[in-house]
Each structure stands twice: as C-alpha cells, then as structure tokens.
Here is the input.
Amino acid sequence: MAESSKLWSSMSLVTALISAAAAKKALNTGWKAATGKEPPSNPADPDVDLWEAVAWAALSGTFIALIKMLASRRAATYYKKSTGHLPPNLQADNPGDLAGHAG
Here is the structure.
C-alpha cells in the first residue's frame, strides 16, 4: 500500500502543478481578451481598481480550483483503471466502501 501511496502522491503533485499552470495561462489570456489589459499582478495593491482586484481574485480562485479538481478526478480515474482501486486518500469517499452504513 505504501508503494501505491507514493505513486498517487507523485501523480497528484504533477497533476496539480500542470493544471494550475494551464489554468493560469488560460486565465491571463481570457482576462486580456475581455478587458484589453494585463491581469493585476498583485490585487492587494491599492493602485489596482477595487472592482478589478475583486473580479480577478474571484475569477482566478474559482477557475484554478475547478481546473485542479477536474484534473485530480481524471488522475484518480486513471489510477483506478491502472491499479484496480482508488488512491488511498480517496477510498473513503467511494460510495461502495460505505455499503451497509446509514447515510
């Protein structure tokens, strides 16, 4: 089980890094297309308009989290197909593991 845990940890890390980088690139491109400006490099800077800072924080936080979640789900599906079971940290979330429990 320790071997599969290490494998999943590696897969999960690589997936998170790649998906976050891809999401950031897509966000930057989309922001520039929509606003005609570069996204704020530091939304906390008082020189950045408040609406722009709030919009960027909300959009980027939501989009990056969503992309990372979708990428993690795909990686978990691949892992399950390869090993026959979910990664160790996701096994408790498998509805089949809860059979017989009230819920």
Remarks:
- Residues 19-83 form one domain.
- The CA atoms of residues 73 and 79 lie 10 Å apart.
